[in-house]
Amino acid sequence: MNTVNADPAELQKFSDLAHRWWDPASEFRPLHEINPLRLGWIDGKAALAGKKVLDIGCGGGILAEGMAALGAEVTGIDLSEKALSVARLHLFESGHKVDYRHMSAEALAEESPGRFDVVTCMEMLEHVPDPASIVTACARLVKPGGHVFLSTLNRNPKSYLFAIVGAEYLLKLLPAGTHEYARFIKPSELSRHCRNAHLDVQEIIGLSYNPLAKTYSLGRDTDVNYLMHTVAAG
């Protein structure tokens, strides 16, 4: 069996916090606050209702459940069993239907190539040793002409200041040590991974936080957080 594309320390970090995933006042508050924005953006591009959707690195299921609520047939995969347990438990509360599986993107790509209309991989690429491998798996998992949505953090002095110094240490939006600057990915680098995987980049949009208003918004500023919409070659 191939080595799993995961950092045990990163998995442990999120597993330790898994029980707090659905607490909107917890360390996962930013995920709760950005979810309506990213969900609306994805739905606007891919019309989720009735689509077979895969959420890679689904964690506790915030995005996966949101897509299910819009009528998608959702599968969520993650390598943290604790996070998946929390995700499965929350389905009893929400009443939504998501098929959660404990496996890697690469393993599922071997098992079910071309199965999904839409693949999402949000806030995960900066936590794995080989992000290009994940992008390639996304491309293998999606149907020709299907949509792949990615999000991560840009790598530059501003992103270091905002995402690590600001978000983790000053504003305490995230636990200290959540991110490692060296693993941030420039849009040009992620675009190259996509091209190599035969995914055509359609749009790159920024996600910004206003600390005064304490609100998030989508816009042109991709200096810190950004989302990418790609379509698989037909």
From TrEMBL:
Catalytic activity: a 3-demethylubiquinol + S-adenosyl-L-methionine = a ubiquinol + S-adenosyl-L-homocysteine + H(+); a 3-(all-trans-polyprenyl)benzene-1,2-diol + S-adenosyl-L-methionine = a 2-methoxy-6-(all-trans-polyprenyl)phenol + S-adenosyl-L-homocysteine + H(+)
Superkingdom field: Bacteria
Binding locations of S-adenosyl-L-methionine: 38, 57, 78, 122
Enzyme Commission no: 2.1.1.222, 2.1.1.64
Keyword annotations: Methyltransferase, S-adenosyl-L-methionine, Transferase, Ubiquinone, Ubiquinone biosynthesis
Pathway(s) annotated for this protein in UniProt: Cofactor biosynthesis; ubiquinone biosynthesis
Family: Belongs to the methyltransferase superfamily. UbiG/COQ3 family.
Role of this protein: O-methyltransferase that catalyzes the 2 O-methylation steps in the ubiquinone biosynthetic pathway.
PANTHER family noted in UniProt: METHYLTRANSFERASE, UBIQUINONE BIOSYNTHESIS O-METHYLTRANSFERASE, MITOCHONDRIAL
Name by which UniProt lists this protein: Ubiquinone biosynthesis O-methyltransferase
Organism expressing this protein natively: Thauera aminoaromatica S2
This protein's encoding gene: ubiG
